[in-house]
Every structure is written in structure tokens, then in C-alpha cells.
Amino acid sequence: MKSRLSRGLVFTALSLVGVSTVYPLIFMALNSMRTAQAFEVNPFALPTHWSLSSYSALFSQVPFLQSILHSLFVVVPAVILATFASSLAAFVFTKVPIKLGNVLFWTMLMIMFMPGIVVLLPLYVEVARTGLANNFAPAILIYTAINIPYGTYLLRSNFRAIPNSVVEAARVDGASWIKVYWRVILPIGKPGMITVGILTFLNIWNDLFISLVLLHAPNTEMVTPTLAQLSGKFTSDIPVLMAGLLLGALPTLLLYAVTARVFIRGMLSGAVR
User: Fold this and answer.
1) Under CATH, which number does the domain 61-235+249-268 receive?
2) Three-state DSSP class for 191?
3) What confidence score (pLDDT) does residue 270 get?
4) Domain ranges, ordered by start, for the chain
5) Model pTM?
6) If you ran DSSP here, which 8-state letter would residue 46 be given?
7) Cβ distance 152 to 86 under 8 Å?
8) Phi, psi (degrees; rounded to nearest 5) at 221
9) Would you say 32 and 243 are in contact if contact means Cβ atoms under 8 Å apart?
10) Ramachandran bin of 178, using left for φ above 0, alpha for ψ from -120 to 50, beta for the remaining angles
11) Cβ–Cβ < 8 Å for 185, 162
């Protein structure tokens, strides 16, 4: 009886968490199909007349699709570079016998606790001096460097769960460290790397300050600063704002929907040894 009651309470709690998570998306989707007048009458009512006028107004008044393409142009290479560099660093810290490995790891990890806003102004000054302001290349490299410590921290615990006997067997067979990394560690640690890639994607896609400072020109602006401007431009037309927020969240939702199983497996791998 107690076990059934406890399972019922857990199920109820998880259901409430799920509803609270999904409700904002449903609220945005429904209200993006309404007119501003209907929203002002009752924000929580269902649409009586479905309309796409909010989306047409969004695309005609704001370069929204262009900002999404800019974000993808920055995020995709930054995620690939950061994930690859993090996996290589985690492999060295866990499987390669190097002197002062733990000292180097914790030194690098200290960077993760440094607020990004602290280094933002010096970074912009250096980028501006080189004449690369509002250029995608510095933004990609900066986003890559910022996300490497976090990815290394996650993959280190993931790679530590890989038995050392597997690595030793490959070394006995004559495999170099590069071959061990490429043919042994990467195939086994693939779920963890995908998880790090997804989290890195979310970190960069949702970032506002770095993208706002480095890429503030209209022809380089990313999606998050564009969404921030919508809240001031469409204060009297909430359905247009809802349409922009929903479309801005759509890439992350699609990414998670495609990689959900691998993401969960990667989060759990290394947690239990």
C-alpha cells in the first residue's frame, strides 16, 4: 500500500513538472495564432479564428529568418570544435599518464567559474583592434573557447567510466594514443559527446551578451538579440512576440526530439560506475 502511494505521489509530481514545462510552449503556440485584440480580451482563451498574421508581421518587420541563419552559422561550427576539443582534453586527463594532470585540469576548470561578462569587454577591445568586429570567425572561436572547460568537465567523468583495461589492451597491440582516442574512446564515449554537443548548442544559442557585443550589426545579428528587441518593439502586439519566441525555441526543441534517447544515455553514463 505504501509503495503504491509513493509511486502515485512520484507520478503526480512528475506530471506536474511535465505540465509546467510544456504549458509555456502551448501558450505561445496558441496565442501566436490569435490577433492582438483577441489576446487583450482574454489572454488564456483558445483561438476562435486561427490566423497566421502574427508570423507574416514578424517576417515582414524583423529580419528573423536571417538572424536564425546567423545563429546556425556560428553555433554549428562552435559546437563541433568545442565538443572535439573537450573530448580530446578529457581523454588526456583520464587515460594518458601526464605529469600534473590533475593540476592542469583544475586550473582549466577554474575558467568555468569565471563570469563571462568579466572577459567580455577585453575580448571586444582585442577583436575591434584587429578589425574583426561584427565578424563570425572571432565569435565562433570565442564561443568554442568558453565552452571547452564545461565540456571537458562532463566528458572527464564520462571517459573515466571506460575501463582502463580496454585502453591498455589497445596499447599492448601497438596502438598509438591517437588511435586509442579515435578507435576506442570516441566510439564508446559517443553518447557523452552528443550530450555535450547538445548542452553546448543550448549555451551558445541562448546566449545574449556575447552575441550582442560581438555581432551587433544588422547583417550579423544572432537570434537571441533579435528576440530581445521584439519585447520592446511589439509591446502592444503580444501574438507577434509569441510567434518569435516560439520560432526561436524551435531549433532546440527539434534537436532534443531527434537526440533525446542518446542525450539521456549520455547524461547517465559515468554517473554510476
Assistant:
1) 1.10.3720.10
2) helix
3) 52
4) 61-235+249-268
5) 0.85
6) P
7) yes
8) -65, 135
9) yes
10) alpha
11) yes
Closest CA to 227 of 206, 213, 210: 206
- Residues present in the chain in total: 273
Which residue, among 254, 225, 230, has the nearest Cα to 244 in the 3D structure? 230
Give CA 78 to chain center in angstroms: 11
The answer on pLDDT for 93 being more than 70 is yes
Residue 18: pLDDT over 60: yes
Q: What are phi and psi of 173, to 5 degrees?
A: -75, 0
Report in angstroms the alpha-carbon separations of 98 from 89, 95, 106, 170, 183. Answer: 12, 9, 14, 18, 21
Q: How far apart are CA 58 and CA 61, in angstroms?
A: 6
Q: Is 262 helix (H, G, I), strand (E, B) or coil?
A: helix
Integer angstrom CA distances of residue 134 from 85, 110, 138, 266: 25, 29, 9, 35
C-alpha cell at 16: 506536474
